[in-house]
What we know:
Mean pLDDT: 78
Shape: globular
Number of domains: 1
Order of helices and strands: EEEHEEEHHHEEEEEHEEEE
CATH superfamily: 4'-phosphopantetheinyl transferase domain
Strand content: 25-35%
Distance between the termini: 32 Å
Amino acid sequence: MPLELESELIFPASPVSSHARDSDSGNSRTAGVDHASEHASVERVVQPARIAHAIATAAAPEFLSHPLTRHHPRSVASPRAGELHLWRFRCEWLPVPVQEGDTWLSKTERERARLHPNAALRKRFISARVVVRWIVANLFDCEPRSVDLRDDGNEKLRARHPHDGRGITIDIAYGGIWIVIGIASAALGLSVVVPSPSTAVGETPEASRRHARYSSLCNALRYAPVDIDVDLLLSDATTRAFDLAEHGCWHVLDLPMAGQIRAAVALAQPVTRVHTFGWPKALAFDLANA
């Protein structure tokens, strides 16, 4: 299993902004902000742990597409080894009326929502948590308000089945109008990269895709510095396997998104099957971000 390091996230030099993640204080954190402060933060952290530069093409997983409806498919069970669930929806979409969803939130979640700096971020946070609780409740066959979410304060969640004890990990990322949720039985990290208005004219989709892949690995490793040759992240393959030495083997999958948005998910085990919710059925995942 990879180490759960708590070092500050380091992004490679890039003008592309990444998804925001909400801290306990309610402040948003995005990549691609003031580069002077970014360089200063690099000087404060320790040198990256030794990371092997081995990389290989991974076999493409099986994709099962499901429509985004207010009825969770009964055939979809809690993810086991090699399985990944991916949800994509707009902030306005909820499986239940807003008033009912609000009653599901824990005291801690209510407090975090209250501390968000503006109404838009507060609504986004609440929508994500309501949907997460609804999903997990259906997977665990329990009430949404009874779901015990263990939260690290950075949109990384863990939940354990109340009967058989099986655990799942959950990551939430935001990009543009989208909320993306990933669920697996192993550690995982999501990244959604949205070009900022100040993005350099010469910035390419390939650079944004590289940034999304890199960020997904950093997020999965609890923001530990990841020392990877950037050229290794420019492959055209949408599914890649990275041997990260003491951090183990990680599989990175590109996710198809609209326009110039790029997204990726990193998982601490080979991905053999992916259940997708909220992506058009005609959209082929093997052409992700093409």
